[in-house]
Amino acid sequence: MYGRSGAELVRELTFDEHQIRRFNHDLFNKVLGEIQEHYYQVSKIMTLLQEENPSGQIMHVDGNYSGALIHHQSLLRNKRCLLSYLYNRAQRIQRLRWQLGAVLPEDVRDLLHPSEKEFLKSYSDILGSYMTNVDLDLTVDATPPKDPYIKIRVLQHIGEVLLGDQTTSLSRNSIHFMKRTEAEPLISQGLVEEFNG
Predict the structure, then answer these.
(1) SS3 label, residue 50
(2) Which DSSP state fits 178?
(3) What pTM, to 2 d.p., does this model score?
């Protein structure tokens, strides 16, 4: 029945609001097919109405007029379902970009449609350009820290690293006191962890 596929596509978004699922090509294309069928039916009915009423006056009680209206509203509803599906996925991709960085893990990238991968690339480029222009990494601290310095423990040998204006040797299991902004990228890569001891 018409309309159920669009509703099912939107319902798919509610299963897990914080995760992204594989792009549903089959259902998406099915809804597109329904839209094309509704458009064909509206065009057919409008052509018939124009042939029957060359003066252009359409009787609102006419069954053909009601059929065209129903097909048109169904077309608009399916269109809204598709746009909602795409918009919601775009928001999730943006959220993933802020949480995981510019390069998403391969298992997450496999879930995206090629146009979504292009959207992610464009979004990352724009965000990176903006952060470069204002000289501020917005992805480091989503919530303001209480203290700009943290104590970290090195999990893997990193070697000599330039921190601020001096070089520091980050060897495995060593503990250091450093700026949060310098430590966050290392923490997100799993090279160091915040030390509370």
Answers:
(1) helix
(2) E
(3) 0.68
Supply the angle between the helices 25-52 and 63-100 in degrees, to the nearest 10.
150
Backbone φ, ψ for residue 98 (5° rounding): -70, -35
CA–CA distance, 73 with 76 (Å, rounded to integer): 5
* Separation CA 184–CA 168 (nearest Å): 16
Six-digit token string for 143: 């919530």
Confidence of residue 14 (pLDDT cuts 50, 70, 90): confident
Q: What is the Cα–Cα distance from 89 to 153, expressed in whole angstroms?
A: 37
**For residue range 103-143, what is the model confidence (pLDDT) as tens digits?**
888 888 999 999 999 999 999 999 999 988 988 778 776 66
The three-class DSSP label of residue 83 is: helix
CB 68 within 8 A of CB 42: yes
Dig out the tokens for 149 from the structure: 């310095």
d(CA 186, CA 158): 10
Cβ atoms of 142 and 98 within 8 Å: the answer is yes
Beta-bridged to residue 159, according to DSSP, are: 170
| Structure tokens given for 27 | 């259902």
54: confidence class by pLDDT, cuts 50, 70, 90 = low
* Six-digit token string for 50: 């124009």
CATH number listed for the domain at residues 4-134:
1.20.58.1030
**41/50 Cα distance (integer angstroms):** 14
Helix (H, G, I), strand (E, B), or coil: what is residue 160?
strand
